[in-house]
């Protein structure tokens, strides 16, 4: 996830290539220095990354100036400070994501901003408050966003901006998958592919904070040694490239790590099969992505003799349930970890 401190225009020029990049860079300003040259019932004009049709992001997105919009009595106008480019954002632009806004649309789904102005009925938010959209919603790739007060969650002003902008989609996915499928206790272990992803890095650290060990699978590529060292510094117990697992019994490589009860798959294909090979009797593999676009192939013996369970996780479905308050409590927990230096991820991946 490459951290980009730039304007919305520069963000569009990055071609939205599917890496989890961060766009933003609007300076935070004191309330006293704000120039109130717009009506309190209107937002300032906004610069936005817009697409009118679905297709390749570098072909269909453009930067345009948006006119002021009304700020209704229960609305909050937020000056956006940063917003990431997640793979799911690219999929929405391409038109292949299951849930997407109607076009024309402004890109972006999560981010962080500073309250610029509020409607007359808003009591719990004030200009200068740091907020994130919770649950996430479309339209974050613009300089000013106006939404109902219920859509914004106030967070600690000391929260690191880059983590506040990215805390929901990936870290929350990691937390929910660790908690929702198998009851884990200290000394247990998990196995995952795609370990260098943001979700993968978060799984390692959250698991470590709970004395749960992690076995991690990464691709064979230039820089894999450096990637392995990076993951171990985050707390990974074991890191293997896919080629290192071309052995008859992968469990012989576990050393003093227990057989994993829970596995995570975001790749598919052979990488998913490797996760299943590590799982203990009755274990479960949770799939939350398919970056290789290859299907998951499961042997008959994995069901009959190992009694494995295959599950799926989609954060958006989880968040639209009756989880709003619980979700915000978890976000605060994750931001606390980030402030304490116990949760970090490499924005270059």
Q: How are the elements arranged and paired?
A:
Elements: H1 8-13, E1 21-24, E2 46-51, H2 57-60, E3 61-66, E4 75-85, H3 87-94, E5 105-106, E6 112-118, E7 130-133, E8 144-148, E9 152-155, H4 161-166, H5 169-180, E10 189-192, H6 198-209, E11 213-218, H7 224-234, E12 238-241, E13 262-265, H8 269-278, E14 284-287, H9 300-304, E15 309-312, H10 315-319, H11 324-339
Parallel strand pairs: 10-11, 10-13, 11-12, 13-14, 14-15
Antiparallel strand pairs: 1-4, 2-3, 2-5, 4-6, 4-8, 6-7, 7-9
Helix pairs in contact: 5-6
Structure description:
The structure is a single chain. This protein has 349 residues and is α/β, with parallel strands linked by helices. It folds into two domains: 46-165, Quinone Oxidoreductase, Chain A, domain 1 (Alpha-Beta Complex); 170-316, NAD(P)-binding Rossmann-like Domain (Rossmann fold, 3-Layer(aba) Sandwich), CATH 3.40.50.720. Helices cover 27% and strands 21% of the residues. The chain contains eleven helices and 15 strands. The strands form three sheets. Strands 1, 4, 6, 7, 8 and 9 form a six-stranded antiparallel β-sheet that branches. The chain has a six-stranded parallel β-sheet with strand order 12-11-10-13-14-15, with helices on both faces. Helix 8 (269-278) links the parallel strand 13 and strand 14. Helix 5 crosses helix 6. It is elongated.
């Amino acid at each position: 996830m490459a951290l980009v401190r730039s304007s919305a225009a520069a963000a569009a020029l990055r071609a939205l290539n599917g890496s989890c990049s961060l766009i933003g860079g609007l300076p935070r300003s004191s309330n006293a220095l704000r120039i109130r040259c717009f009506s309190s019932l209107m937002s300032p004009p906004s610069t936005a990354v817009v697409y009118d049709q679905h297709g390749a992001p570098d072909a269909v997105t453009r930067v345009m100036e948006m006119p002021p919009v009304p700020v209704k009595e229960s609305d909050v106008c937020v000056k956006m400070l940063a917003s990431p480019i997640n793979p799911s954002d690219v999929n929405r632009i391409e038109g292949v994501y299951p849930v997407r806004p109607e076009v024309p649309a402004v890109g972006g789904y999560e981010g962080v901003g500073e309250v610029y102005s509020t409607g007359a009925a808003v009591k719990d938010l004030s200009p200068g408050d740091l907020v994130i959209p919770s649950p996430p919603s479309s339209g974050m790739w613009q300089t000013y966003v106006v939404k109902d007060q219920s859509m914004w969650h106030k967070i600690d002003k000391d929260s690191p901006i880059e983590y506040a902008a990215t805390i929901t989609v990936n870290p929350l996915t990691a937390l929910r998958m660790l908690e929702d499928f198998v009851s884990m206790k200290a000394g247990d272990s998990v196995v995952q592919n795609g370990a260098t992803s943001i979700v993968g890095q978060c799984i390692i650290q959250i698991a470590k904070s709970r004395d749960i060990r992690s076995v991690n699978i990464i691709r064979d590529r230039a820089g894999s040694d450096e990637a392995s060292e990076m993951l171990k510094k985050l707390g990974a117990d074991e890191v293997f490239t896919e080629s290192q697992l071309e052995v008859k019994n992968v469990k012989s490589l576990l050393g003093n790590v227990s057989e994993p009860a829970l596995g995570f798959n975001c790749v598919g294909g052979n990488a998913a099969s490797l996760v299943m090979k590590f799982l203990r009797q009755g274990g479960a593999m949770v799939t939350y992505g398919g970056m290789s676009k290859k299907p998951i192939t499961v042997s008959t013996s994995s069901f009959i003799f190992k009694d494995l369970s295959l599950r799926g996780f989609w954060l958006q479905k989880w968040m639209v349930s009756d989880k709003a308050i619980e979700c915000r409590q978890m976000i605060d927990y994750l931001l606390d970890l980030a402030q304490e230096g116990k949760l970090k991820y490499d924005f270059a991946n």
